């Protein structure tokens, strides 16, 4: 079993999210974007979904490219629906020079439309030198490399209140059996509701499924399911649904019972743990930290986290993220892609906080706190066993649409997990329809 020993009674100790460290100006193995001033007068447009602090930090990263090359880079937000932003621009032959896509499925979709430009020169070399095979393949289509995973999110974390665990006399579990057989049961016996569920946000339920499936069925099966090389009626899917029922089938274990679980969205579920203290745990990614702080918790003290427990031999490591792609052949585009794939650029962003990298050359001490350092290390140490969010790799009508596909089927299953075979059949029907 792969084990991640996170400090603090087996849990992840987290320091304040606002802490900063200086990022090194030049990291080992960096790819230089070009000589100073060699792109003077060149203007480039980059589009991504980020706003607020994320946008500010990314534009600071872009400023490093401008300073190095003399180019001018303008940032434009796509809004939450990247496809709705890019579709008309592609049709009008006016795409941004570089776009950041929130789903690998969009890389394949736009490559099929000849809307992407393959990486070449220093950009292709930077991808090859700084990323392992799985991450390179994620942004590739039919052997051609198009994308660079620029920003990652760690989706294999369960957050908890240490005071609730102390009151019940339990510790963070390392296995699913310990979570469901000891931790949650003991909390419930002590009068503490174990889980807040975010069921109204269907994507959180797909994340539950993906973690259990990856750990229980293994990476090879996971890839086969992504590609629909096996049906969703496969025994491995049914077994995962049965495993989820260990939690989803116990209404007393969820804040508000079954109806509360289905009706509570993200991030309201986080406030049920931190602030309202209606539950002891909530499952979701590293970005829970921000919502926990907004609810009044101190991350690392009153809000802590532990790795999603192992269901099979290994604990799962599931990530989401954003992939940068070139959409024009303008001067400077490949140099910008090389820069974005470099440890220099990503070390800068790591030092600003709220960021994870899958770049093997970004050092752990580039991150501002122990929390992020540990998450980054688990992503890299998982090697070829780490997997990208399944629902973001399948057609969006199946994996990422409200009221349809995986979201709808899993919400129904959360309401009544009595028939996993029927739920698997509905997943297969929805997957086939989306294709």
Explain this structure.
The protein is α/β, with parallel strands linked by helices and 435 residues long. The protein folds into 2 domains: 43-154 and 319-388, Periplasmic binding protein-like II (D-Maltodextrin-Binding Protein, domain 2); 157-316 and 395-428, Periplasmic binding protein-like II (D-Maltodextrin-Binding Protein, domain 2, 3-Layer(aba) Sandwich), CATH 3.40.190.10. The protein is built from 19 helices and 12 strands. The chain has helices spanning 52-69, 82-91, 104-112, 121-130, 133-138, 162-168, 176-189, 202-217, 219-226, 235-248, 257-263, 268-273, 288-294, 333-340, 343-352, 370-381, 396-399, 405-415, 420-434; strands at residues 43-48, 72-77, 98-101, 140-141, 144-145, 147-154, 157-160, 195-196, 281-283, 304-307, 318-326, 387-388. The strands form 3 sheets. Strands 1, 2, 3, 6, 11 and 12 form a 6-stranded mixed beta sheet that branches. Strands 8-9-7-10 form a 4-stranded mixed beta sheet. 53% of the residues are buried. Residues 7-11 and 13-32 have low confidence and may be disordered.
Distance between the ends: 36 Å
CATH structural class of the largest domain: Alpha Beta
- The rough form would be described as globular
Give the low-confidence spans.
7-11, 13-32
Mean pLDDT: 91
Major sheet, described briefly? 6 strands, mixed
CATH superfamily label of the largest domain = Periplasmic binding protein-like II
The share of residues in extended strands comes to 5-15%
Question: Strand pairing plus helix content: what structural class?
Answer: alpha/beta
Organism: Streptomonospora wellingtoniae
Pfam families: SBP_bac_1 (PF01547)
Signal peptide: 1-25
InterPro entries: Bact_solute-bd_prot1, SBP
């Amino acid at each position: 079993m792969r084990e991640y020993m996170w400090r603090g009674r087996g849990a992840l100790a987290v320091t304040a999210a606002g802490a900063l460290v200086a990022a090194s100006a030049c990291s080992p193995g960096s790819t230089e974007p070009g000589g100073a001033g060699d792109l003077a007068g060149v203007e480039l447009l980059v589009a991504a979904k980020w706003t607020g602090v994320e946008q500010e930090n990314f534009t600071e990263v872009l400023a490093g490219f401008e300073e190095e090359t003399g180019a001018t880079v303008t940032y434009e937000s796509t809004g939450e629906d990247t496809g709705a932003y890019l579709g008309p621009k592609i049709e009008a032959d006016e795409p941004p020079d570089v776009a950041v896509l929130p789903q690998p499925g969009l890389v394949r979709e736009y490559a099929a439309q000849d809307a992407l430009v393959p990486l070449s020169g220093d950009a292709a070399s930077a991808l090859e030198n700084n990323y392992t095979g799985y991450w390179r393949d994620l942004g590739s289509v039919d052997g051609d490399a198009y994308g660079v995973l620029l920003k990652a999110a760690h989706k294999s974390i369960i957050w908890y209140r240490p005071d609730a665990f102390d009151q019940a006399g339990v510790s963070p579990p390392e296995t699913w059996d310990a979570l469901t057989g000891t931790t949650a049961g003991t909390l419930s016996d002590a009068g503490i509701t174990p889980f807040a569920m975010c069921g109204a946000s269907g994507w959180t339920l797909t994340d539950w499924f993906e973690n259990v499936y990856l750990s229980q069925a293994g990476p090879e099966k996971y890839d086969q399911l992504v590609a629909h090389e096996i049906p969703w009626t496969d025994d491995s899917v049914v077994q995962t649904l049965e495993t989820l029922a260990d939690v989803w089938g116990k209404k007393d274990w969820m804040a508000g019972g079954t109806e509360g679980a289905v009706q509570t969205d993200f991030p309201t579920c986080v406030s049920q743990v931190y602030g309202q203290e209606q539950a002891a745990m909530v499952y979701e990614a590293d970005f829970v930290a921000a919502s926990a702080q907004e609810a009044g918790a101190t991350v690392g003290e009153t809000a802590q986290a532990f790795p999603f427990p192992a269901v099979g031999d290994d604990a799962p490591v599931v990530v989401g993220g954003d992939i940068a792609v070139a959409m024009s052949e303008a001067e400077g585009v490949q140099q910008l892609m090389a820069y974005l794939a470099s440890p220099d650029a990503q070390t800068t962003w790591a030092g600003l906080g709220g960021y994870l990298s899958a770049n093997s050359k970004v050092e752990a001490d580039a991150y501002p706190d122990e929390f992020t350092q540990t998450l980054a290390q688990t992503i890299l140490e998982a090697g070829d066993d780490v997997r990208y969010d399944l629902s973001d790799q399948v057609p969006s009508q199946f994996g990422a649409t409200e009221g349809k596909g995986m979201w709808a089927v899993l919400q129904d299953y959360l309401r009544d997990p009595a028939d996993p075979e029927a739920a698997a059949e509905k997943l297969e029907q929805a997957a086939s329809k989306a294709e």
